[in-house]
Write a structure and sequence with these properties.
There is one protein chain. By secondary structure, the chain is mainly α. The chain folds into 3 domains: about 150 residues, Serine Threonine Protein Phosphatase 5, Tetratricopeptide repeat (Alpha Horseshoe); about 60 residues, no CATH class; about 280 residues, P-loop containing nucleotide triphosphate hydrolases (Rossmann fold), CATH 3.40.50. The protein has 30 helices and 7 strands. The strands form 2 sheets. Strands 4-5-3-6-7 form a 5-stranded parallel sheet, with helices on both faces. Helix 1 runs antiparallel to helix 2, helix 3 runs antiparallel to helix 4 and helix 13 packs antiparallel against helix 14. The longest helix is centred in the N-terminal third of the chain and has 30 residues. The radius of gyration is 26 Å and the shape is globular. It comes from Komagataeibacter melaceti.
């Protein structure tokens, strides 16, 4: 199982705070509270803050705030990259009359910590104060997505949607607020009942569910555990406990809970689905498939079970079976747009395929109450299907619509990214990299595959994964998780170029911590001992190549490349979950250029041979020559299995899940392009790279 996220304790001046999933700090309070939560993280209504100290006179408050801001301004002057100080000062600016100064600080913090719901809410308020309502709405939406029970964010999101004319969205927010307030009343009522009868199992379960509904998962788990103590066979209590433990990150405990439930109730459909999804999420794909198959057998007319089975089957290369399952899911739930997108990603639709007219009907029916995401699913599915049939003009028209719908809900600050990459180039000189790499961790185990999405990276990882000495971890957050926890653990950490301020022991701790986390990802490894190499294919790690070299000077860095226009058009045709720059042609072209310039910098400052460039077109032209070059660079003996990469059954979770199950093909080179007028934003963004 994956290791639990480590919580660290950091210090800024005399302010102590606990860093868990966010860096939420509310100056003037003790501990990790904010303006809208209690000490246990439970949502508080503003009207319930009766334990606040009496307010100071206005003049004293102004003086206090001015002194506090001055203090943190001084700290930031001395340590301009200190994220925690930046977040505190940005919050103070936002809430005390300087929103325009708050916005760049908060954006920078959120780029490094995108799970900070409070940060997005504060950014939204600052954007609203400066008249940027569209961006403010997106920030409020992100805060409410990260923490669905965040009352203040829901209030602001509802108001913003109402002002923009989205009455349906506003009503939805207000309904969630009313439900949240109702939950708080229910908690009081259930506690009164339990005071009179502590063994009331039904009420314990109801209280646990209510706590879960508002995100208080620790308290929920406690109530479900009590219910199971009094009624060990109770399915509802066991299901609730498993869900609460999952939310708390106690994955092994959650698995054990579901396994105990299924030992007592082997025909529990929901138990098999919950356990299957948990195992699937944590890379135990074959075990997950077993539970999904049992769920399908128990309830063959349940579309979610068919879709869950399909998603797991496609990852291990059983594409035909996966497609059949997606088709069954569509026949059972033809209104679920995501199933169409999933099917078209892994198979081609013929002109007479019955799925195609069903998609067209969904697209044409404007009376259906579909969300933007569901409409985007339809457009991406039609875009892929029509492209496969050679109807490229119609295909691209759908891609333009689908991307525009996605882009509407994304906050992306390309200016901040440009500044960050420029600072990286300034700070990571050849001398600075070489100085710290001398005493880096000597392990040759890490292999980092970096580059732009849709550049052939999954193919390269599949070639490596076919070698008996390599474990392919795929796209994992391990490196960024390691860095975030290091930032919380070590007060001297700085953004962009943090390692120079740390001691040798601190740097070695970070290097060892990453290796520990990396090896914890290894599951179902058939070899003796640990893998010789473990890949990390999180492509955005190209931002951290300087730090990678400093921490692990013997790590391999493989940079996958492809024709810039082909790369960008392939990105535009793919509905990514976590690539916020791919939904606008202009932003996509400019981001490609930023990435290209940073990679040119790394080539200039790294020692000769430290990084390997692999062009997708070269791999297609001569697989064996390219594969041998990759394996040799990784310091491994050649193995002929690397040429049969498409036979590997290791799980693949990228958008190339179907392509890497086939031998090399040339159709992705020189892909169809729309007319120059349509492509103009992309070509202008790419400049002379086009």
């Amino acid at each position: 199982m994956l290791p639990c996220r480590i919580a660290g304790v950091g210090h800024v001046g005399n302010l102590s705070y606990k860093t868990e999933r966010t860096m939420a700090v509310w100056p003037g309070r003790q501990g990790p509270r904010d303006a809208f939560t209690g000490g246990n993280g439970a949502p508080m209504q503003e009207t319930q803050l009766s334990n606040n100290p009496p307010p100071e006179p206005a003049g004293q408050q102004d003086a206090h705030m001015h002194a506090l801001m001055k203090y943190y301004e001084d700290v930031l002057t001395k340590s301009p990259d200190h994220l925690e100080t930046m977040f505190i000062l940005g919050t103070l600016y936002a809430r005390h009359g300087s929103p325009e100064r708050a916005i760049p600080m908060l954006r920078r913090v959120l780029a490094h910590n995108p799970e900070n719901a409070e940060g997005f809410h504060t950014l939204g308020r600052a954007l609203r104060e400066t008249g940027h309502m569209r961006e403010a709405t997106a920030a409020f939406r992100q805060a409410a997505t990260l923490r669905p029970y965040y009352r203040a964010a829901l209030v602001d999101l509802g108001d913003a949607l109402a002002k923009s004319g989205d009455q349906t969205g506003a009503v939805g927010c207000y309904q969630r607020i009313l439900a949240l307030d109702g939950h708080n009343r229910e908690i009081t009522r259930y506690r009164d009942i339990l005071a009179a009868n502590p063994r009331d199992v039904a009420t314990l379960i109801d209280l646990g569910r209510t706590f879960r509904a508002i995100g208080r998962h620790g308290e929920a788990a406690g109530r479900f555990e009590l219910a199971l103590r009094y009624a060990p066979d109770n399915i509802e209590a066991a299901m609730g406990l498993g869900a609460a433990l999952t939310e708390l990150g106690r994955v092994n405990d959650a698995v054990a809970c579901y396994q105990t439930l299924l030992a007592r109730h082997p025909d529990c459909y929901t138990g098999h689905m919950k356990l299957g999804r948990l195992l699937h999420q944590h890379r135990h794909v074959n075990e997950a498939i077993s539970h999904f198959e049992k769920a399908c057998a128990l309830k063959p007319d349940e579309a979610p079970a068919q879709a869950a089975l399909a998603a797991a089957l496609q990852e291990i290369g059983r594409i035909g079976e996966a497609a059949a399952c997606f088709r069954r899911a569509i026949s059972l739930a033809p209104e679920c747009t995501r199933y169409y997108q999933c099917l078209t990603r892994i198979t081609r639709l013929a002109a007479d395929d019955p799925v195609l007219p069903a998609l067209r009907r969904l697209d044409a029916d404007t009376t259906l109450p579909l969300s933007d995401q569901e409409r985007a699913d339809i457009h991406f599915a039609l875009g892929k299907a029509l492209s496969d049939m050679g109807e490229h003009q119609q295909s691209f028209a759908h891609l333009l619509k689908g991307n525009a719908l996605h882009r509407r809900h994304i906050t992306y600050d390309e200016g901040r990214m440009d500044v960050g990459m420029r600072r990286t180039r300034d700070l990571f000189t050849a001398g600075e990299i070489e100085r710290l790499s001398r005493d880096g961790d000597p392990s040759p185990q890490p292999v980092f595959i970096v580059g732009m999405p849709r550049s052939g990276s999954t193919l390269v990882e599949q070639i490596l994964a076919s070698h008996p000495g390599v474990y392919a971890a795929g796209e994992v957050s391990t490196l960024l998780d390691t860095f975030r926890d290091a930032a919380a653990r070590f007060p001297a950490w700085r953004t962009v170029s943090p390692l120079g301020k740390l001691t040798h022991e601190e740097r070695r701790f970070i290097a060892s911590d990453y290796l520990r986390r990396l090896n914890a990802l290894v599951t179902d490894w058939p070899g003796q001992g640990a893998p010789l190499r473990i890949t990390n294919k999180t492509l955005g790690n190209y931002l951290y190549i300087g730090m990678i070299r400093q921490l692990w000077p013997n790590a391999r860095i493989i940079h996958t490349m492809r024709d810039p226009v082909d790369t960008c058009l392939s990105c535009f045709a793919t509905p990514f979950n976590a690539q916020e720059f791919t939904f606008d042609l202009g932003e996509l072209g400019r981001r490609y250029r930023q990435y290209h310039d940073l990679m040119a910098h790394w080539r200039h400052v790294l020692p000769q041979g430290a990084m390997l460039d692999v062009r997708y077109e070269d791999v297609v032209d001569d697989l064996e020559v390219s594969a041998r070059r990759i394996i040799a660079y990784c310091g491994l003996p050649w193995d002929d299995a690397c040429l049969d990469f498409y036979r590997s059954t290791r799980p693949v979770r990228t958008s190339s899940v179907e392509q890497v199950r086939n031998p090399i093909y040339r159709t992705a080179i020189g892909r169809w392009r729309p007319d120059a007028a349509t492509l103009r934003p992309l070509l202008e963004g790419l400049g002379d790279l086009a």
